[in-house]
Write a structure and sequence with these properties.
With 427 residues, the chain is an alpha/beta fold. It is built from 17 helices and 14 strands. The chain folds into 2 domains: 2-204 and 406-421, 3-Deoxy-D-manno-octulosonic-acid transferase, N-terminal domain (Rossmann fold, 3-Layer(aba) Sandwich); 217-403, 3-Layer(aba) Sandwich (Rossmann fold), CATH 3.40.50.2000. The strands form 2 sheets. It has a 7-stranded parallel beta sheet with strand order 3-2-1-4-5-6-7, sandwiched between helices. A 7-stranded parallel beta sheet has the order 10-11-9-8-12-13-14, sandwiched between helices. Strand 13, helix 14 and strand 14 form a beta-alpha-beta unit. The two termini are 35 Å apart.
Amino acid sequence: MRLLYSLAIYLLTPVILSHLLWRGLRNSDYLKRWSERFGLFDPPAATGGIVIHAVSVGEVNAASPLVRGLRDRFPDLPLSITTFTPTGSERVSHLFADQVFHVYAPIDTPGAVRRFYQRLQPRMLIIMETEIWPNLFYGAESRQIPVVIANARVSEKSVRGYRLWQPLAQHVLQSVSGIAAQTETDASRLVQCGARDDEIEVVGSLKFDVRIPNSLAEEGENIRLRWGPGRPVLIAASTHEGDEQPLLTAFAGILDRFPDALLVLVPRHPERFTRSAQLARQQGFRTQLRSETEVCDPGCQCFVIDSMGELLRYCAAADVAFVGGSFDPIGGHNVLEPAALAKPVLFGPHVFNFQEITDRLLSRGGAIQVDSAAQLAAQVIRLFEQPELKDRMGQAGLQLVKGGQGALESTLVMIKALLETKPDRTQ
């Protein structure tokens, strides 16, 4: 079955390259560094370390505490991070600069994977969340490289997909040395996909171990003072087009009650920056871009953050946070970052990618789920009108984040044990 899979990947390679070309029409970074996707790159000065695979921005953010923990715990092991997307690459550069080596993950053909391993000679491969690439896993198994799936989560949709190639998925998952699952539900779904019970440990989500820099509160306060300390601010994080129309409709209603309100709009993908600003202007909002100014003018109604890596600093300056990917059935995005900043969190009806976390946040009183633009407007107005409720919700979310921490330490313990049983073969 793996041979059939490999043949399919070879046949699909032109489709993958066409997709990169199409994405490159909107983001030229997709047209660069194609050789890396075939395992052709200059290796770092130091090899034989740990490779962490994180698909894009969300997985890189989730990996951030793990990377810091690995650097502290294993300072002599070089770290490499792979991503599929240029935005993930940019985020790696922003977070870690030259502390790690970045390369694009290879297309999952046997040849590209072989060249990838030859150049990095890793001692361990860590997969963030659940990215099952059979040849990448097989290449690790054949080289006796332990594989850890960290922050593992599996949606019900993914379970259905894996059942279509169950024998291959089962072999891949049973080759893994350890799985650090986010929840009991994720652990159960992984077993359904073919993983062994004894290789799974439920440790919680690494996203609870988010580290908020001490300087962030001061940065947020400075931005807030320049906006006007009494001005009500709603930040909409990681939005998609399906979020933005109801969001802008809701904001029009919010302006009826609070004419000086500000919407800080943070699109999920860079190729949508211009489109998001166009939508806001089409709705009649006075709109500025982050690329034009660090802090928008007093007359601005919608401030579009057309940059990467600045979500937290603007979230720190806001009153209320809406998390996107939740009006359309995308499954939602990370609600824990605004909660860690003590902001009340709102999201739409589709949060299945973070169901257990959002359920806990709702049950603790740190979040509100809305089904429509009208409900979103009503709840934001309510929070603007009742600062004591806003603060109470923010503190509830913050306490949930603090209480959920610990996944990082458990994951590091698993990694340490596997490294000790798999000595460095490059020496």
